[in-house]
Amino acid sequence: MLMLTVSGLAFAQAPLPDARTATPQAIAAALLEEAHAQPAREVLAREAAPRATEVVRALVAGLPEHDEAEEYRRIPWIWRVAVAAGRAKDEAALKALTDFSMPADGQRLRDWQSVVLGGGVVMGVSQAGAWPRDVMAPWLLEDATRAARWARSLELAERMADDPAIRNGTRYDALRMLAVLPWDRAGARLTRYLSKDVDPELQMGAIGGLSDVQDDRAADALLGHMGQYTERNRGLAINALLKTDAGRAKLKAALATGVVLDAWLTPEQRQKL
Q1: Is 152 buried (19+), middle (13-18) or exposed (0-12) by CB count in 10 A?
Q2: The whole model's pTM is what?
Q3: pLDDT at 15
Q4: Residue 236: how many other CB atoms lie within 10 Å
Q5: Can you give the residue ranges of every domain in the chain?
């Protein structure tokens, strides 16, 4: 049991709940309790991934519609649970989480929903080494209602991505959602955010989105703006090109012509190339 000391007095703090057996409400409360050490809460969030829907439901329970401060107090932990499920590529958990997190008819796409869908489901699946569009396609084919709700969620994400009133971190997640759209619909919007005058976080979201679009034009867009990225984003763009044979071939050609400098690659990236 953890001992906390306040003004010289020692208090016993209960241990974190077991992610397998505790109620979702107990897990959510522990994740949001700042008295617990953050690393321990991060472990709990990862361990709760198989129960992502129930835990996220508990994390958003009672969340006021327009209380941004409270929503963003909870969002980091909502994201950690969601992205852990995505990285585990737990399709049963992810389908249920997607169903829960998509806005209902007539409702807006809330920030936490964009975080779950873009930063958790889509990005997590991508980080697991899969193509999000390919993973999600069978889910949509098996349920017409799910497919219709997902199509509407993507329409709302397109608007959210361009809305300056939304925090950039959440616009990043909206841009990640667009990776499941075909190039002809999403390519121009994602490419617009690659310019050097774009906020680096939004630029990162566009690079992440394009990295999951299976189209040679996405690789061309990433290469065409290589000199405009921040150093970190340039590394992400190179990683995106290294995902496929076609991307690697284009990267080699860009190195040969000087569009990409060898100094921009890490030793690990050179090895993959």
Answers
A1: middle
A2: 0.90
A3: 86
A4: 16
A5: 22-29+46-55+74-177, 181-273
